[in-house]
Specification:
Elements lengths: L4 H11 L2 H21 L3 H10 L8 H10 L6 H4 L2 H17 L4 H8 L10 H12 L8 H8 L3 H19 L5 H20 L1
Helix pairs in contact: 2-3, 2-8, 3-7, 3-8, 4-6, 6-7, 7-8, 8-10, 9-10, 10-11
């Protein structure tokens, strides 16, 4: 499949703030680099990263409408957390608006905020690419960048730990898929340690 990024960039430039558009370009570039490192299709990864926040700046009402229309499996915790709607809405939007049917691309956008157990390589790449893109400047971002290029499973566990702590600190809800994702990567780490 050919990934037409020029059309998508035009759409994003017209529908996102400059800051969000720049973030989308940075995430796309990070996804390309991670894909090259971990044997995923770099063009596909760039495309998914580019579109991950496509619905981030539409109204809450429109986001929620898309979430409900999507018929995706959405947990109560996700429905109760506005900041998560854009990912679900985005996956549904690119499917219906642009005819993108690739389930891996759709899931990489749908799960880029909450994660889940058994993520595909592309899903992991978009999840991490969003977390470590060039515009990110949170306290442990350098550590996250380093581990993302040395140990993919370790980076995913670190990212889930960071995400869970952040949600708990803010007093938010933890979606079941996030808890399952954390447990999944914790088990992988446990297995790796027991092999040594």
């Amino acid at each position: 499949m050919l990934y037409d990024t020029s059309e998508m960039k035009k759409y994003l430039k017209a529908n996102l703030s400059q800051k969000r558009y720049t973030h989308s370009l940075n995430v796309a570039e990070e996804c390309r680099k991670l894909a090259l490192k971990y044997g995923e299709d770099p063009d596909k990864a760039y495309f998914a990263g580019l579109l991950h926040d496509i619905c981030k700046e539409i109204s809450d009402e429109h986001q929620k409408k898309l979430v409900i229309e999507s018929n995706f499996s959405v947990s109560r915790e996700e429905l109760d957390t506005k900041s998560l709607w854009h990912a679900i809405a985005g996956a549904y939007f690119i499917k219906t608006h642009f005819g993108i049917e690739d389930i891996d691309i759709l899931n990489s956008i749908r799960f880029h905020t909450v994660g889940r157990a058994g993520m595909t390589r592309l899903e992991e790449i978009v999840y991490l690419g969003d977390l470590i893109s060039a515009d990110r400047d949170y306290k442990v971002v350098d550590k996250m960048r380093k581990i993302s290029y040395t140990n993919l499973n370790g980076a995913m566990l670190e990212a889930f730990e960071f995400s869970v702590k952040s949600v708990v600190k803010k007093g938010g809800f933890l979606p079941i898929c996030t808890v399952e994702g954390y447990n999944f990567y914790k088990r992988l780490q446990h297995k790796e340690k027991n092999k040594k």
